[in-house]
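Z., the sequence and structure:
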Amino acid sequence: MAFANAMNLLTSHGFSCDVTLEELVNWFDVQTAYPDLSLDQVLRKPLLIVHEIAELAEVKRMGLPIACDTILKNRSRVYEAHLRAFEVELALAKRVHDLAHIRERLREVENWTTDPLLPRRLRPRCRNLHAQAEEALKECHHLHSKDLRIRRAKREDWKPVLLIQQSDSVFPYLGRPSRPSKVRVRDRWLLRLAEPGVYTLVAVSGDEVVGYVRLKRGEGLGSHVGEISAVAVRPDFQRKGVGGRLMNEMFRVADDLGLRRLRLTVHSDNAVAIHLYESLGFEVEGREREAVRRGRKFIDLLIMGRLEPRP
């Protein structure tokens, strides 16, 4: 599942990697010159899986075999593949606005620049990657602190929400056969605002609503569970951290309500959303096969859950 999600994330951003899961497993049996992360540890972090897939794809392009001594016999070329993989990893981290991942990896790249095993010819490239990571961190900080505020939804917000739902990058994931009409969006918006146990937040830039998130609290024996039933961002604000800001603010609402568990469903081909949820602590708990029909194509739904630590 984690491997497939990483491949989808790469594909969705235009990166082509001819790598199989079996090859990736074999790659982790290759001898290295340093202590390394295990496959299980890497599979817990989507962007690290991306890195390993991209690295292995580059090794294959170089014509190197996947053998136990490949790295030890080809240190210079494998190190080059490693740096190329980080370029891909960093590009995706920037696009999905994973600030924490960039910050964590920045410290590691700094260590690479002083690695005695780093070939001399690759030192300028490694220093350049370190500078790129620093710049990416600054850019993400800027976007994160930009004029964006989160507030409770209002009745009149249905108008910008209509435009968001009708956009080409949002509509395919609504699970509806046709684009929502003005009347449908307005009526459902007002209905949800009046419904007990439903909480809706909107992201506002300037005076414009650019995204929203909705949570519904469970009832009875499920009153400790919250369902994230909608997350959507206006196209020109996507991949700028708005979805993460909305989700983190909704986590505060969930905490105030004393919720123990949050769940959501997501289309299995929505790699960007899956990565966002995984970076926020959600884990894939199940799959509803061919649960959604999009034109002539059937799409699986992934069930994802997040548990709060017990007090």
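Residues 2-145 form one domain. Strands lie at 149-152, 198-205, 208-217, 225-233, 261-267, 283-294, 297-307.

Let me know what you think.
H.
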